[in-house]
Amino acid sequence: MDPLPLDCGRALKDVNIRYETAGTLNAERSNAVLITHALSGDAHVCGYHTPEDRKPGWWDAMIGPGKYIDTDKYFVICSNIIGSCSGSTGPRSIDPDTGKPYNLNFPVITVRDMVRAQKALIDHLGIKKLLSVVGGSMGGMQVLEWAVEYPESIDCAIPIATAGQFSPQNIAFDWVAREAIKADPAFKNGDYSTDEPPSRGLGAARMLAHITYLSEETMSRKFGRNLQNKESYDYDFNYDFAVESYLEHQGKRFVERFDADSYFYITRATDYFDLSAHADGDLIKTFALTNAAFLVVSFSSDWLFPTWQSKRLVEAMLKNKLPVSFCEIQSSYGHDAFLLEVDILGRMIRDFLRHRQEGLKHV
Question: Which residues are catalytic?
Answer without folding.
Answer: 137, 302, 335
